[in-house]
Amino acid sequence: MEQVTRAPKIRLGINIDHVATLRNARGGVLPDPIRAAQLAADAGADNITAHLREDRRHIRDEDIARLLAEVDCPLNMEMAATDEMTGIALAAKPPWTCLVPERRQERTTEGGLDVVAQHNALAPVVASLADAGIQVSLFIGAERAQIEAAARLDVPAIEIHTGGWCDAIAEGRKADAEAEWQAIVDGAAYAHSLGLEVHAGHGLNYVTAEKISTIPQIVELNIGHFLVGEAVFVGLGESIRRIRAAMDRGRDSLRLGEGGRVAS
Length: 264
Hints:
Shape: globular
Structural class: alpha/beta
Low-confidence stretches: none
Mean pLDDT: 93
Number of helices: 11
Strand content: 15-25%
Helix content: 40-55%
Number of strands: 10
CATH class: Alpha Beta
Distance between the termini: 13 Å
């Protein structure tokens, strides 16, 4: 008789970038993104994500220093694969970095890294971070070629960009949403088969976070903008507790047989 167990709990990373966006829109020091990170940790976050952009539009250098010094929750520092950001990461030594594409003209990250085309540029950055004991993930689309390229760089993890799926759902493009969903499902399974830890994020809300938590190979979700928006209405701690509950509902719907297969 096949032994059936629950899938492991999925981790929740809270992105605090847009708390810093609100602070910077007015100037001064409030709202304090470090206080937001502390509230997130108290509400059930497993890690804190912060993207230090080239133009410092939200997170600032001093925010990274304070997050590492004052918050009892691991930091995942999102960054472009540039000399400047690599130097900052090597000096700060966050537990995790996530390499992301970055353009000054974009409002938010618009897609995943093209690891296939940028392999030679990414390799020394990944190597230097790894040599310093910093775990590295790559923010990529769910395409098989990108996943294979990430595996060749010997990173421990990837983060699948979920924005296309979430946008298609929000815009009522059912066929596109189904295609994007299948790509995420297939990509997560393939990445797992190559030994990569699989994370996911971008555009997730209560509904989509619950659904994507049913993919057994995904072990972490990173969510930010939606929760900061919800905080206006219900408070940041409550919005995080609600997303945590949604993820747990999705995860609890899974029963795993031997070898991590979804049992019928």
